[in-house]
Design a protein that fits this description.
It is a single chain. By secondary structure, the protein is α+β, with helices and mostly antiparallel strands. The chain has one domain: Orthogonal Bundle (Cytochrome p450), CATH 1.10.630. Helices cover 47% and strands 12% of the residues. The strands form 5 sheets. A 5-stranded mixed sheet has the order 1-2-10-7-3, with helices on both faces. Strand 12 and strand 13 form a beta hairpin. It starts with 14 loop residues before the first helix and ends with a strand. It binds protoporphyrin IX containing FE.
Amino acid sequence: MNSETLKSVEPVVPEDIARIVVSGKSYAHDDVIYPAFKWLRGNMPLGKAYLDEYDPIWLVTKYDDVMEISRDADTYKNGIHNVLLQTRESDEFTRKMMNGKIRSLNSLAFMDAHEHKTYRDITAKWFMPNLIKRYEQRIREIAKESVDEFFALGGECDFVKDFALYYPLRVIMDLIGIPREDEAIMLKLTQELFAGEDPDERREGVDLGPDAVARAWHATMMEFYDYFRGLSAERQKNPKDDLISLIANHRVDGERIDEAHEFDYYIAVATAGHDTTSTAASGGVLGLIQYPEQFDLLKSDIGLVDKFVTESIRWTTPIKHFMRTASRDVELRGQLIHKNDRLMLCYPSANRDPDRFTDPDAFVIDRRPNQHLAFGNGLHMCLGQHLARLDMRILFQELIPRLNSIELTGTPKFIEATFTSGLKTMPVRYTGG
Ligand code: HEM
């Protein structure tokens, strides 16, 4: 590290801006969160937020910095501290529940180095495009059925609640090996796990308080465990062509993986896979409604569907952050980041960085280049990215040629959450069939 290049004054983020970035509510309002990110990128691209209820956090808002941190997994680690931003009291609650550890899920996003590789290798091949492709026919059948149901609703519905939530859920549950009759339970548990801050989606019966998010998280996890215990035993006896069978029968150094790692793997895949994809899909349709010339463009050339999917994922950026912790003193953008400092990777900000994207707030389906960071980058880059893209491509290949028009009949609402957020409701009127 060349100490001569280091800036001498620590950039402290103004409290009102810091509060916007750490509050779930802000992510439900584009006109609140994006101006705050714009201010940060322009005035304090790497600023440190000090708020009483939180550890100090570096807010990383520029594309190049999010990329640099993501690609240097030796320096910026996932396992030292919580990979999600939660209050200090929530983190304390997690430590209490997890024998002093901050890890609330034994899944890839919480792991580093050798452990991460060991567990990622179990499914890495399964998620590669050439293997995922073999499910294309199955996914297309689910897409056709879902689109038929959409048109059977008669031309008016809530695009999110009546349609978009269910298609990616069906696909991922089918591939994991969860029976269709249990989809509703999985959806409810996912929402409770990830949207602990949202008044409509948070788990019932959890005392509200500074550690409420962690309390809800642990109660939900126990319910997931009860569910997967039976399914795992069944697949060990009768393996099928699904992810549960792959993981339940996998051996590391000749041993089955322990229950916590096994069940947390299912939870990670079952929860990461559908909320995010459905958010990107419904957000893409909102883009088409707000930018009607883009709808006409896609209608006139369905060959643009892959680009449209990519832009929908950039524009919506369903995962709002992951945290990293510095494993050593390091210099970034002229600032000294101390060992054990925590950094918040603000993906929506990186994806609207004007140094990277022309007219970044606009929805432009044939945007080129479009190397967004909505799937992260480096060692932890989204395991399910090819599946998410395939899901969305097939859905829109089935939907768009049959859809003649679509408009809003009410104001769309977004989920209040700092981790995964996107449309919660979107009332629409549409024609086609
Ligand atoms: C549009 C949909 C999706 C988005 C926007 C998304 C986004 C992300 C992001 C930002 C990360 C963290 C990357 C990093 O730390 O660098 C991630 C990791 C992950 N995603 Fe996704 N994801 C999506 C769909 C899926 C699907 C469909 C699955 C599985 C079926 C999935 C499973 C995972 C897993 C297991 C990880 C942890 C990987 C690791 O730490 O090695 N995701 N995803």
